[in-house]
Amino acid sequence: MNNSVGNTARLLWAGLRALLVLTVVCGVLYPLAVTGVAQGLFPDKANGSEITSNGKVVGSELIGQRYDLPMKKGEETPAPDLRWFQPRPSNGLGTNSVNTQYELILSGATNLSGDNKELIDWVTAAKAAVIKDNSVPGHPISPADVPADAVTSSGSGLDPDISPEYAQLQVRRVAERNHLDVAQVEKLVDQHTEGRILGFVGEPRVNVLQLNVALKQLVNES
Length: 222
Description:
Blueprint: H1 2-41, H2 43-46, E1 50-53, E2 56-60, H3 117-134, E3 161-162, H4 164-169, H5 171-177, H6 182-191, E4 193-194, E5 205-207, H7 208-221
Antiparallel strand pairs: 1-2, 3-5, 4-5
C-alpha cells in the first residue's frame, strides 16, 4: 500500500515538473523568442502591417476598407463616397467615410455559382453603378472597360487591393470630385501600383488604403 502511494506521488510530482517546465518553455520562453525575432527582423509585418496618416494608425495594408457616405434615412446600404478610390465590392467590409478607422463585419464569399440569378443581378447592378459613378462629362465609361474586380468580391471579402485597371477607371472621377488635375491623380496611381511578387507571382495591384491616404495628403496640399 505504501509503495503504491509512493509511486503515485512520484508520478504526480514528475508530471507536475513536466507541466511547469513545458509551461515555461512553450508558454513563456518560446513566445518571447518568436516575438523578439519578429520585432527585430520585420517589425512592420509583426505589428499587423499598419498604415499611418498624420501619426495615427488608419488601418492595415492587409485588410480592405470601404469609403461610404453616412447612411441616410430609408437607405438599406450607404452610398459610396466618390471623393475616394473605391475598393472591390463586398458585404464583408465595414464603413469608413473619414479614412481614419474601420470596422470589420464579417469575412467570406457568397458561394454562389456563376449561373446563379442573384449573383448575375448583383454583378449587373454593380457594373451599372461603376459606369454611372465613374463617367464624367466628356469621358463616359464603356461597359467593356469595367474590369472584373470592379464588380466581384474576393473570396475573403476583405481584399485590400484593386487592379491597376480599376484604379485607372476611377482617376477622372476622383480628380473631378477633389478639384485636382487628372495627371496628378494618374501619377498617384502609378506610384502606388505594385508589380507581381518576384516578377511572376500574382497580379499587379494597387492598395486602396495606401492610395487614399496619399490622395488625402495631396488634397490637403492643393
